[in-house]
Each structure stands twice: as structure tokens, then as C-alpha cells.
User: What shape does this take?
Amino acid sequence: MKILEPSSKKLYVDATFGQGGYTKEIFKNCYNCKIIAIDRDPNSKKYIKQYQSSYKTKFFFFNKRFSQLRKIINKFGEKIDGIVFDLGLSNTQLDDPSRGFSFNSNGPLDMRMGNQNDSKITAEKIINEFNEKDLSDIFFKFGEEKKSFKIARAIISERKKNKITSTLQLSEIINSLGLKKNYKINSATRSFQALRIFINEELNELQDTLKCIPSILNKDGKIVVVSFHSLEDRIVKNFFKENSGIFYNNYRNNPPNITHKTQTLSIITKKPLLPKFSEIKRNPRSRSAKLRAAKKI
Ligand SMILES: C[S@@+](CC[C@H](N)C(=O)[O-])C[C@H]1O[C@@H](n2cnc3c(N)ncnc32)[C@H](O)[C@@H]1O
Assistant: This one.
């Protein structure tokens, strides 16, 4: 909120409404602003009633993907003064076994953030039907899993005997491989993350949506993004750099290239903001959060 500085009569977007934590804070800071809230998960509708009744003409909810942002904004006929993204899964999604996101509790292999029209493919279909190479590519590309081949091979071998239909079946297959354990994370973490990102097209969603941000922000309008893994953070970091006029390519010793792209953003957070130790203690899931912000110039 310190970065966003919500103020009266302005228009903000909470692109990942969830249970409305960010919306609540924005309204707390300025009763008189307007908020467009978006979430692809229809379960979010349970949490909008209180805002619809308290802020009748100031709160607008869309059960859509945030990549529909430009279309949504066009309906309002005005530019926005700030947008926040709190990426990934909400605690409710993660903690509900029926959604199939967690390797700690048993549930169907689903992992769709939205409804059936939002994403057609489920984790069960991928795990039981994709070939070894495609499975391995998903684990490697979206989970940065070094043992992706080994995991894919074990899945193929298991599914010849039994259809794999539950989260615990899948995590047991991965855990039985005796992969070197990171003391902080379960061996199945990366593979579950990879499946979820693939099914929900999370990286494309982010990349496509960021592209339209400079053209929908008013001057001095802010974009604030909280991401939870390096693939997303890299997309945000590179987008900010490219649009602030400088693109550092990945080779450490090369000087920065000045791109010819017009400069549209000024970076507010030179380095990402990380949670303090006290916050991680209170909320362990915040440990991998990185906040980056920029301002339209
Ligand atoms: C980390 S949670 C946000 C929690 C929220 N800030 C709160 O206070 O409750 C992320 C939310 O973004 C939604 N989401 C993720 N990707 C999305 C996308 N591409 N379009 C729309 N909603 C998305 C998820 O369904 C989830 O509810």
C-alpha cells in the first residue's frame, strides 16, 4: 500500500482477487476510490458480497482470466491508476483437497484454477496420456526439475499397471524415487508446481497481460507484482527492464543494451522486496514471495 498510495476518485485493479485481501486494504486506504477485481476462480464469488454491499458503485468483479484485462478496462472507458498482481494459488485453493493442488492431502488430479471452460485439461489427463518426452519437458520447463526424465519414466511405468488418479498416488511415485532431498521442500514440490503452471498457462497469462499495462496506466500509475517462483519473477523483472529503456541480456560481462523501445515505466524497486523474518514466521508460505513495482512515466 505504501507503493500503491491509493487515493480518492482513482481507479485500481486487483487482478488476483482471491478472497479480497488486497481489495480490502485498498478500500481501507481510500473509501472513495473504485476497484475492478478479477479472478478466474468462480469460488472467489463467495467473497465479493461484502464489497458489493459496502461499495455498491465502486466495486466491480469479473470472473475472468486477467489476460482479458484490456477488454475489461475498455468497458470503463478510462485508464487506471494502479494494478496489483498477487500471483499463484490462494491458501483456500491449496488447502482444498478436491482441487488437487496439494501433494500433502489426497484428492483428484485436477489442478485447474478456473472452471471447465477456463482450462480444458486436467492433471489426470496429462499424467495418464502424455508421452515420456512431453511429461519430462513439463517438469523441466515449468518446475526446473533436474530429474524430470526419471520422474516421467516412473510415471509411465506405474500407469501401465494402474491408472494414476490421485494426488497422493502421484506424490508417492515421485517420493519413491529417492531423489536427493532439499531439507526445505518435498521431492514432489517442483513437479506439482510444473503441472499447475502448464495446465493454467500461468506464464503466458502473465507475459501477455504485462504487455498491455503501459497503455492502460495513467501517468504516475503503479504496477505492483508479487510472485512466488523464479519463472514468474524473471518475466516481471525483464518486462520492467525492457520498458524502462534498458535491457540487460543474460551474459554477465556484456554491457547493457539500450533498446530503442520507448521508455514507459520507471522501476520503483531496484531489488525485489522480500518478506521480513517475522512475516515468514507468521506465514511460512510467504517465504518465496518477491515484490516488484514500477510507475508509468
Ligand atoms: C495468491 S492468490 C491471491 C490472494 C488474494 N490477494 C487475497 O488476498 O485473497 C492468487 C489468485 O489469483 C487467481 N489467479 C491466478 N492466475 C490468474 C489469472 N491468470 N487470471 C485471473 N485470476 C488468476 C487465483 O485463482 C487466485 O485466486
Remarks:
- The chain has a mean pLDDT of 93.
